[in-house]
Amino acid sequence: MQGFIETAVGRASESRAPRLAQDWRPDFSRIRGHVAFAIADQIEEAIRAGLFRPGDRLPSQQAIADSLGFHPNTVYAAFREVARRGLIKGFAGRGTLVLDYALS
Fold first, then answer.
1. Is the pLDDT of residue 85 over 80?
2. I want to staple 8 with a disulfide (CB 3.0 to 4.6 A). Which of 31, 34, 45, 55 is the partner?
3. Does residue 68 fall inside a structural domain?
4. Where is each HTH gntR-type domain found (predicted)?
5. Is residue 6 part of a domain?
6. What angle do the packed helices 72-84 and 61-68 form, to 10 degrees?
7. Are 56 and 3 in contact (CB under 8 A)?
8. Are 46 and 86 in contact (CB under 8 A)?
9. What residues does 56 pair with on adjacent strands?
10. How many other CB atoms are there within 10 angstroms of residue 20's CB atom?
């Protein structure tokens, strides 16, 4: 990880997005119930708040798991849930990108 999130075309978007594994962390005081769903909710909130924009590449699930101290399967489940919501998509060899979505 280079300390920033890259857009789909490779430009750094340092000024508009936090370094997820270093700066963004779920608010543990708000995690209730299933941890993966709570993380998914907070990733969705970050996307809808504009911290992550369409085309931004999220850090790897492993990097997030290592940074937060969760098992990789927990982060995988969170990403899968956010993808089910239509906000992100994983691409082989390219990582996970934030999709262009309609704000509701």
1. yes
2. 55
3. yes
4. 33-101
5. no
6. 130
7. no
8. no
9. 7
10. 24
- Please name every residue paired with 7 in a beta bridge, in sequence order, or none if there are none: 56
Sign of the alpha-carbon dihedral angle for 25, 102, 16, 6: positive
- Domain range spanning residue 37? 19-96
Whole-prediction pTM: 0.71
What type of residue is 4? F
Domain-embedded: residue 9: no
Number of domains making up the chain: 1
Q: Concatenated DSSP letters for 10-50?
A: S-B-TTTS--TTTT----GGG--S-HHHHHHHHHHHHHHTT
Cα-trace Rg, the chain: 13
The answer to the question of residue 36 being in a domain is: yes
